[in-house]
TrEMBL record:
Key word Zinc present: no
Molecular functions (GO terms): ATP binding; tetrahydrofolylpolyglutamate synthase activity; UDP-N-acetylmuramoylalanine-D-glutamate ligase activity
Reactions listed under catalytic activity: UDP-N-acetyl-alpha-D-muramoyl-L-alanine + D-glutamate + ATP = UDP-N-acetyl-alpha-D-muramoyl-L-alanyl-D-glutamate + ADP + phosphate + H(+)
Family: Belongs to the MurCDEF family.
One Pfam family hit: Mur_ligase_C
Task of the protein: Cell wall formation. Catalyzes the addition of glutamate to the nucleotide precursor UDP-N-acetylmuramoyl-L-alanine (UMA).
The organism's taxonomic lineage, starting at the top: Bacteria, Pseudomonadati, Bacteroidota, Cytophagia, Cytophagales
GO process terms (BP): cell division; cell wall organization; peptidoglycan biosynthetic process; regulation of cell shape
Protein name, entry field: UDP-N-acetylmuramoylalanine--D-glutamate ligase
Domain of life: Bacteria
Domain Mur ligase central: 105-284
Amino acid sequence: MIAILGAGESGVGAALLAKAKGLDVFVSDSGEIKPVYQQKLQAADIPFESGTHDSLRILAASEIIKSPGIPDKAALIQQAKANNIPVISEIEFASRYSNAKFICITGTNGKTTTTLLTYHLLKSAGLNVGLAGNIGESLAEKVIIDEYDYYVVELSSFQLDGMFQFKAHIGILLNITPDHLDRYEYSMAKYAQSKLRINQNMTPADYFIYNTDDKLINEYFDSAAFKGQLIPFSIENQWQAKAYYSNSKLITNYNSTEEHIDTSSSVLIGKHNQYNTAAAVLAAKLTGVSSENISQALVTFKNADHRLQTVGEANGVCYINDSKATNVEAVWYALDGITQPIVWIAGGVDKGNDYTTLHALAKEKIKALICLGVDNKKLFESFTGVIPVIDETQSMEEAIQKSNTLAQSGEVVLLSPACASFDLFNNYEHRGRRFAEAVEQIVLAPLKQ
C-alpha cells in the first residue's frame, strides 16, 4: 500500500496516478481537504481521511508520498524513516510512469518566470510539451495519460529533497540565495545541496544549465565530478559562458556556433529577467527551437500574475504588482530593473530580512516608502536616513491613496513587499489581487467616469 500525506494538487495527483496503475493507495491530510479534491478522490474510489492522521495505517505502507509542505522533521516522517519506509515526492513517483524528457527549473528566485517562458518558447515552436510541478499543476496527474514528449517542470527545494532516482534531461539552476533556511537547520550548505539535486543522475546525454555569475552555485557545485554536459550562462563573463548579453542581443554558443537572439521586445524587465531569459532560451535551443522562433515567442510571452505585473497607468504613473517578491533578493531585482523614480509599498511578515543590500538602490531610486504591515518597525529602522519619506498603514486602500498623492508623472508605484503576506492577507496572490483592485477603484475608475 502507498500512503499519501497531503491532499492538495500534488497529493491528489499522485493518488489518481497510483489508482490508475492498479496500486493500493490511501490519502491522509491533517488539515481539511478542499471539496474539489475530496470530489476527485471520491470519484476515483480512493480512500482518504481529512483532519487527522491514522499513523498505524500510514506506517503500514510500503512507500509514502509526501506533500512538499510537510517538513522532514515532522514526527510521522521521522517514524517512517526509522521504520525504513521510503518517503518520496510526487515528482519522483510520477517520473516512473513517463518516457518523456524532463526540463526542470529551480532556484531561489525566478523559477516560475523561467518555467513559464521555457514552456512558452517550446509550445510556440510547435513542440508537444506539458507544464507541471511547483507552478501549481500535478505532474502525476498529467502522466496518467502521458501524452507529451517534453515536460517543463518547476521544482522547489522541498520537492527536490524527495527525489532520488529522478533524472532531468535538462536541469536549470538560476541562483541560490538564503530562503527557507528553517527547513535546512539554518545551513546555507544544506540548502545549496538541496538545490543542486536538480542535476542528480545526469548522464553525458543530459544538460545542466546554470548561472555562472552566482557566488553560491560556484561555491557548492563540483563541476569536476559532474557527468552531464555543462551549459553555464552569464551577464558578466562571456568568456566562461555558453550564453551572454551584448546590449539587447543574447548570444549563444553552446554548440560552437554563435547565434544572436534579439531580446529588445521582450516584456520581461530587469537584470534578473536577463538571467531567466538566458536560461529559458538555452533550454529551447537544446530542444531544437530556432533563434527566429525564439525571438518571435519572446514578444508574445505573458508572465504569471504578481511578478512585476503592470496593473494600470494613470496620469503618467505606472502601478506594478510584484507581490510574489517575498524576500529581499527578489525586491533587489525589481528595483534594479525599474529606471523611473519609485514609490515603494513593502512590508508584511519579516523573514529575518537584512535590508542593507537594498540601501544603494533605495538611495538612487526610491522617493518614498509606504510600509504595509502589522509591525513596520524594522522597515522604519532600516530605511530611515536612506529614503526621504516613510509612512505606514495596515490598509491596502490607504497605501494606494498615500502612493497616489506622492507619485508624479513618469514615476512608478511598486508593490514589492520583501515579506510574507500572512499578517494582513491570505497569501501573496491575495495581496496582489487587493493591490490591483485598489488601483482600479481608487486610481483608474475615477478617470473613466
